[in-house]
Amino acid sequence: MDSRLKWWLWRLFRKNETRVHELNYLFWECTTRCNLACRHCGSDCTLPGSRRDMPLEDFLKALDTIPRKEVPREFTVVLTGGEPLLRPDLEEIGKSIRRRGMGWSMVSNGYFYDREMHARLMRAGMGALTISLDGLEPEHDWMRGRAGSFARAVEAIRIAAAEPRINFDVVTCVNKRNIGSLEEIHALLGELGVRNWRLFTVIPIGRAAGDADMHLSGEQFRALMDFITARRKKKDAPLRVSFSCEGYLGRYETRVRQNPYFCRAGINIASVLIDGRINACPNIDRERFSQGNIYTDSLYDVWRNRFLPFRDRSWARTGPCKDCKVFDRCLGNGMHNWHGDSDAPLSCHYAKVRDFTPSY
Amino acid sequence: MKNWFRHLLKGTTLTTALFIFQACYGTPNWLHEENVEFKVVSAEDGTPVEGVEILTRVYDSDSVEGVDLDWNLCGYTAEDGTLKTLIGIVDGSSPQFRFQDSGALFSPKDTVIQKCDGTIVVELQKK
Q1: I want to staple A105 with a disulfide (CB 3.0 to 4.6 A). Which of A261, A349, B27, B38 is the partner?
Q2: Is the domain covering B31-124 a CATH 3.60.15.10 domain?
Q3: What's the CA gap between A10 and A14, in Å, rounded?
């Protein structure tokens, strides 16, 4: 099919999804406590934690504002943090969500994930899991700020990869230190039995803002795209590699992930943040884009009646995006790229592949 | 496009992948391969039983003392005794299910289901 026709159909699909505006993916920032000190952490969370964990009953009250008939079968509550495994009531959380006919999943650094924890979480109905691995031992431990975290993450991955009943993937934040090790990491994950590996890059927020080692150069970014493209050409490979849906990638679209770019923040994705604020993804500017608060508003009412900046992205046609020829495909890149009062996204993935691809 | 067309796309094998996504820094969708529908009733009078915890396991695994390693929670029956859910399946195995009444009025029941077609009616005996 002609690529322009494909894009036309895709935009039609995206427009309809935006109009229907079905909530089916809800982050819950259930804690900001963390046992690690990752260099790329967007929330800058630390072990003591500046905020107390949100009580489960507060979150459930917010969840109960969603009418049962409006809950699609694939509705997922994604526990994030901080490190969710630090919560002592994780099983109760999981069962409470399942009582409401919803699924749940978790993003974890894997440090506290052992066989017993796995069994307990499966018993509480966990349906999907993501564990971070940010390189081989030296790079991972450097990035996570704690010696021994690599070994713990690898053990967690081994356990999760052997579980066929959950959707499990490993994520890697690609940076200057680990980009040279992608082949070795790929081999390691293959040995561990992992079936899905997702790569992403960071934007300059949180701790990563002033850390030059965390950000790829244009050439490195293109090398990352080429690495993923080459891996995906092997259709029968047991380990599927993909790039996260963090931005529009021009010629690399559909080569590095299953579907074309579509930022679903505020279209299908919402989050309940640690202080009760309602936003789309947790890494989106909280001051600028929060839409309400579960302590003063109904989560479902906010979802149905607000989120307008997410559903109509015409405001992003400003700064460098104003006259951009691919704006109708990109809509100003991922929402998490818009911070503060800036009239430009923090990162333009399209510019990276355009400027550093000679034949483009 | 109308909502009915969206439902059609979602239910069609070739286009269902359009709806599978994960947030940039989130987990994969909770989307398993098999839809299952249960209806749990009292063996005595056929009335629906609410709040029954339904667990599944599809393979035997090692066990750690005091922990059920191999059970995965599917969910709980609603007021009409039904639970519609998605379960993970493993090729070549038949899922085993356990039904436990959280109200403790009924005895738990374990059963193996060869094929998860239609509504599976399960009768529980009162204690």
Answers
A1: B27
A2: no
A3: 6
pTM score: 0.92
Which residues lie below 8 Å from residue A35, measured CB to CB, with a gap of 6+? A47, A83, A86, A109, A111, A112, A146
Q: Which of A106, A115, A169 has the CB atom closest to B64's CB atom?
A: A115
Residues 6+ apart with CB under 8 A from A223: A179
pLDDT in tens, B3-40: 777 777 777 666 777 777 878 889 988 655 677 889 99
Contact A266, A290 (CB under 8 A): no
Cis peptide before A148 (omega within 30 of 0): no
* pLDDT of res. A43: 60
State the nearest Cα–Cα gap between A27 and chain B, in angstroms. 8
Q: Which of A123, A271, A281 to mutate to test the interface with B (most CBs of B within 10 A)?
A: A123
Average pLDDT for runs of 10 along chain A of length 360: 80 92 96 87 58 96 95 92 96 96 95 95 94 96 92 97 90 96 97 96 81 90 96 92 94 91 96 97 94 98 97 96 94 94 92 70
A–B CB contacts, 8 A cutoff, strictly below: 157
Chain A residues inside the 8 Å CB shell of B70: 119, 122
Q: Which of A252, A247, A251, A242 is nearest to A265 (CA)?
A: A247
User: CA A215, CA A202: separation in Å to the nearest integer?
Assistant: 7
Residue B13 pLDDT = 64
Each domain of chain B, given as residue ranges in start order, spans 31-124
- Sign of the CA dihedral running A104, A81, B23, A220: negative
Summarize the confidence of residues B67-93 as an average pLDDT.
80
ipTM of the complex as predicted: 0.86
Please judge whether A125 and B72 are an interchain contact, meaning their C-beta atoms are less than 8 angstroms apart: yes
d(CA B19, CA A73): 12
- Give chain A positions within 8 Å (CB) of B29: 25, 74, 76, 128, 167
Say if the Cβ atoms of B21 and A245 lie within 8 Å.
yes
